[in-house]
Specification:
The chain has about 240 residues and is mainly beta. It has a single domain, classed as Jelly Rolls (Sandwich). It is about 0% helix and about 40% strand. The strands form three sheets. Strands 5, 6, 8, 13, 14, 15, 16, 18 and 19 form a nine-stranded antiparallel beta sheet that branches. Strand 9 (about 90) and strand 10 form a beta hairpin. The protein is globular, with a radius of gyration of 16 Å.
Length: about 240
């Protein structure tokens, strides 16, 4: 995989194809660190408790799946639970069209300004964890390291907001309380597809914008064709 940066865009080239991220805005407190969940090594973004610790993207229909399927996943290595850290948020928690927080070991999923799911996340500090929030056919499931966390929920929330930015590592109104403290990498936003349909094998190498079904072995993974991936953060 080759990654190049041009005029604020990230182009990720893989297997002869290319994917171009939307423009990324990096807060001044975000750095790139040689930290990786993969045995082959790699980089991650390092976030701190600063209000300037975030990656933001302009509002877009890409962050508005409507009532359709979606998959949002990432690897994180949290060194502190902070107050109410947001791995990602479109807006702020009280009005967010879609957001996640991991507070004191509890995983929360928010949609259309209300929390829709919560479950104990177990041990999360000082180790790499792969997370995935997946909606398929009106049912949302949360996975931790490839295993469903808690029960699924019926989720018919019509997420149509196209006027609020997406923030990774914080929320739209930046704060120290909402800051994710630690490392994050391989954040992938897929619109229109439930990539994972059941417990799956945790990815063992960097994610790609397109992928075959079950690229890491196991089962319950759908292929990702061109056009489904809207964001892929691999530093």
């Amino acid at each position: 995989m080759a990654i190049t940066f041009t005029n604020g865009f990230t182009t990720i080239t893989n297997n002869g194809g290319s994917f171009v991220n939307p423009t990324l805005t990096f807060g001044s407190a975000v750095t790139t660190a040689v930290q990786s969940p993969f045995s082959g090594g790699g980089n991650s973004y390092q976030f701190s408790s600063s209000v300037n610790s975030f990656i933001s993207l302009v509002a877009s229909s890409d962050w508005a799946p409507g009532t359709g399927d979606f998959t949002i996943e990432w690897f994180s290595y949290q060194t502190s639970t902070g107050s109410f850290p947001r791995p990602f948020s479109v807006g702020n928690y009280s009005t967010a069209p879609i957001a996640v927080s991991i507070e004191g070991g509890t995983f929360y999923y928010w949609a259309n300004g209300g929390f829709r799911y919560s479950n104990s996340a177990g041990t999360i500090l000082n180790s790499w964890v792969h997370w995935a929030v997946v909606r398929g056919s009106g049912v949302t499931k949360v996975y931790k390291n490839g295993t469903q966390l808690g029960s699924q929920i019926t989720d018919t929330n019509n997420i149509t907001n196209t006027s609020t930015e997406l923030t990774v590592g914080n929320e739209t109104t930046k704060s120290t309380g909402a800051a994710l403290i630690g490392y994050l990498t391989n954040f992938r936003w897929v619109k229109g597809l439930a990539v994972y349909t059941g417990n799956f094998t945790t990815p063992t190498s960097a994610l790609t914008a397109t992928a075959n079904a079950n690229p890491y072995g196991g089962s319950n993974t759908q292929a990702i064709g061109d056009g489904y991936t809207k964001l892929l953060l691999v530093p």
